Amino acid sequence: MPDRLPALDAALLYGEQPSTPMHVGSVAVFERRSGGLDFDTATRVIGQRLDYLPRYRKRLLPVPGHLAPPVWADDVDFDLGYHVRRSALPAPGTDHQLFDLFARVMQRPLDRERPLWEAYYIEGLEGDRVALVTKAHQVLVDGARTVDLAQVLLDEGVADRTQAETEWTPRRLPGWPRLVADAVTDAASRPGELVENVRFLARDVVSSVGRTAQGAGALAAAARSVTGPARTAPARRLNSKVSGGRVFAGVRTELDAFKRIRSARDCTVNDVVFTVLTGALRKWLESRGHHVQSTASVRALVPTAVQHEDAEFSPAELTTSRLVPYLIDLPVGEPDPMLRLQHVAHEMAEQFGPDRPVTARTMVRMGGFAPATMNALAARVAGSVPRRGFNVLIANTPGPQEPLYAGTERLSAIYPVLPLGRDQSLAVGVTSYQGDVYFGLNGDRKAMHDVDVLADMIEESLEELRGNKW
């Protein structure tokens, strides 16, 4: 049987536009203390790790007449040098310059004639640091058969990367008669999929997604929240039509600050993270001259991996655990930071119900940097929710607190990036690593030209919470 793209993924692929490329990514920063992570070493490491990711050497073949979704097939012309690229900042490059380059890399769609991923080795950073930027299409990373490249590149200790790459021999591409014959066979055995293919041809993407999403229960959970986006004028500023340009800003904060607030207020670190973002959005809206009414809110789509309170997951099961796209109203109109925290904690408790987010300890058992894969899955889930139902996409995935390495080089910082929808001008990825919490702000270059201001507001909002007399 052909390795056919699932119906939901096909809907996402067909709905992609040049202005809204559907890939996720991250920018990982390394301190070259031993000088070992040069471009050739990085390329060799990536090539070796592709043995764990067979789909990273496959491309999508469309079926003639769109009789069925595309199939995965070996890229007979696979060229590692095309996918792993080298770039540099004018030394000594700053983090701001790195983020600007990262935004330009992320705004470019991936080439559908090749495997749907790219990696960039960026040198010239001040302090003899280098960055490794990865980007992968949502349909490439499904969590079950394929994880994100960033997850398998990083090890819990200094790793021996001197082993030779396994020789890989691609299989011949199937011709159009075989593609058509397989599509007809599949349609005969699963007639329901033929109906979905007609919807794809009509580009009724939202309808297709709503009917074919495997997480139908997750969609129902989201629908149990309030329908439609927050109606206040400030919130609608986040629903501007997206252009092709991107801006990015990264924020690094101390995890201990979030833990102290959690302990003082008997809430969760996740509650504190979203309260900090709520305060930052409030300050950002005010910086634009908006009068934020006391009842104003911003509706966030929050894809979350959850498990029942009595359930236990193994690392292998975690990637296929249920991700629920919760809709959370962030009370940006509340001026008191402590009351904001109470509102957010109450909202989170109401939404999760008997389920609970998968713990950081469980994430760590997955090995490598699991948040990279979980963010890719979160983006897939977000693609199954009507875009007009929320104002901003936010995904918070806890990461390991022990140092990770690429070869001999230690990972010193990592910032996630989530894709923008057609009418969403901001997406926020959050993760933790080795005692810090990292925020990745991906914005539309026109609507969010001042994304750096929002980044500064995150730090101010955290300080505002820390400064309260508990």
From TrEMBL:
Q: Which GO terms describe its molecular function?
A: diacylglycerol O-acyltransferase activity
Quote the InterPro entries the UniProt record gives.
Answer: Acyl_transf_WS/DGAT (IPR014292), O-acyltransferase_WSD1-like (IPR045034), O-acyltransferase_WSD1_C (IPR009721), O-acyltransferase_WSD1_N (IPR004255)
UniProt keywords (A-Z) are:
Acyltransferase, Glycerol metabolism, Lipid biosynthesis, Lipid metabolism, Transferase
Note the superkingdom of the native organism: Bacteria
Pathway annotation from the record: Glycerolipid metabolism; triacylglycerol biosynthesis; Lipid metabolism
Task: Please indicate if the UniProt record lists Lipid biosynthesis as a keyword.
Answer: yes
Q: For the O-acyltransferase WSD1-like N-terminal domain, which residue ranges apply?
A: 6-273
Q: Which reaction does it catalyse?
A: an acyl-CoA + a 1,2-diacyl-sn-glycerol = a triacyl-sn-glycerol + CoA
Annotated EC = 2.3.1.20
Q: Which GO terms describe its biological process?
A: biological process involved in interaction with host; glycerol metabolic process; response to hypoxia; response to nitric oxide; triglyceride biosynthetic process
Task: Provide one Gene Ontology cellular component.
Answer: plasma membrane
- Report the top EC class in one word: transferase
Question: Which residues does the UniProt record annotate as the domain O-acyltransferase WSD1 C-terminal?
Answer: 327-465
* Record bears the keyword rRNA-binding: no
The UniProt similarity line reads: Belongs to the long-chain O-acyltransferase family.
Q: Which NCBIfam families match?
A: acyl_WS_DGAT (TIGR02946)
Q: What is this protein called?
A: Diacylglycerol O-acyltransferase
- The protein's organism comes out as Prauserella isguenensis
